[in-house]
Design a protein that fits this description.
By secondary structure, the chain is an alpha/beta fold. It folds into two domains: 4-60 and 362-410, Urease, subunit C, domain 1; 62-348, TIM Barrel (Alpha-Beta Barrel), CATH 3.20.20. 35% of the residues lie in helices and 23% in strands. The protein has 15 helices and 18 strands. Strands 1, 2, 3, 4, 5, 15, 16, 17 and 18 form a nine-stranded mixed sheet that branches. Strands 6, 7, 8, 9 and 10 form a five-stranded parallel sheet that branches. The longest helix has 17 residues, at 100-116.
Amino acid sequence: MSSTILIENATIVTMNDRNEVIENGNILIENNRIVSVTDADQKTTSAAKIISGQDKVVIPGLINAHNHAAMSLFRSYADDYPLMEWLEKKIFPAEARLEPEDIYWGAQLAMLEMIRGGTTTFVDMYFYMEQTAKACMESGMRAMLSQVFIGENAVPGFNSLQDVKSFTEQWNNAANGRITTILGPHAPYTCSPEFLQKVLKVTEDTQPLIHIHLSESRQEVDQSLEQYGKTPVAVMQDIGMFERDVLAAHCVHITDEDIDILSSNQVGIAHNPGSNMKLGNGVAPLTKLLNKEALVGLGTDGPASNNNLDMFEEIRLAALLQKVVNESPVSINAEQALSLATCCGARALKKDDIGVIEAGKKADLAIIDFKQPHLQPEGDPIANIVYSAAASDVGTVIVDGKILFNQGEFLTLDREKIIHEANIRAKRLRQ
């Protein structure tokens, strides 16, 4: 039996190829797809559930293109350290104490935050990834999940490349297709070229998307130049990594030649301005990347290095940082900034059924309450979203045609239990 939802009389920011904003429109959802997007004065089939769009703006569900969700357990644990010191002295020792159930509750805590802020899809790389998959099934979110591995070294939940391959096969397209499994070699500085070639070989039959940190810090690039005489991007090119679909997180310290490589190979890039700022890693050359038509999405990185999963904040930072470093207010406009977290983010993930509000796309939507002082008076809705809106302005979140959050109530997750369990585990891990 089909289920239908009608959102009526709303302002709809479609993020489609024509950049349409429908000021008084209806969205009809049947099962997990958008059936129609019309002006409100056009007749629309009745629906089982009707949501008033009065004083509301509907946007595509936000896409967090790079995350380590269960690191919510390490939020505010190790702040104000340089990247390598942060990892080696604080994070890695704490992560060695992780148990599978910790990941489950940490991931659910992150999902509470993401859903509350209008994020409907996230890309994750972490340990014991089957636990995040279970949490994702229960939450109703859409996710691309990768078990991280650091060379051939033992990490929680990883014993061999064959184990990783088994995870990708077992969980791919689970939860009615909401879960996609991908590969997560950590970074070129933790995975040698020889090991990365093994990764490519062991998955040459299935060829899942590869999710990897790339050129995040100046130290990483200097190390690569000293060891290989090439940038990390050039090393990945040489070993054939970019012959596959790749999502490269960060890409902060990249040359013009690196940008050409990334663009010509259609490498997805996850831009993480908040985390890069907090770790003092610099500002990615976003304007240059976009001018070369690179596939750029937007991510928060993990909640231990950000320290939140607020995509509205990332959208605003992406715009403002480029204006600062380029000393030009026209470097990135509001529409471009929002596209990074919606339609362009989907393209970076090689997903063609999310990120846009139009007939035939998956019904992943966020509804923003615009009857807020900081969103008034009425003006350009996209500018208001990018420069004024907050995650707390989201009133309703729909993923795959199912309402996950509505007017302050989580419909798939137990907020109090998750917070309680996460605190118990965080205290143990931080000893």
